[in-house]
Phage tail assembly chaperone
Amino acid sequence: MTRFADAAGRLAGVAGWLLGWRPDEFWGATPAELAAVLRAARGEEAVEAGVDGAELGRLMGVMPD
């Protein structure tokens, strides 16, 4: 059985080596954030283009503040 401390230590090492995270960055991240960054690092998530100019104008019109 793997203890939490052992697993966390391994993940902290991976985050430091692969992502360049310092310990405070690792411990400040949520498990979901770490998983998302690792998926992106492995190329498992496609990057979307974002909002185009027309959509941005529409959003600014409905939310003017």
Notes: The chain has four helices and no strands. Helices lie at 4-19, 23-28, 31-41, 53-62. The mean pLDDT is 82. The chain has one domain: 4-62.
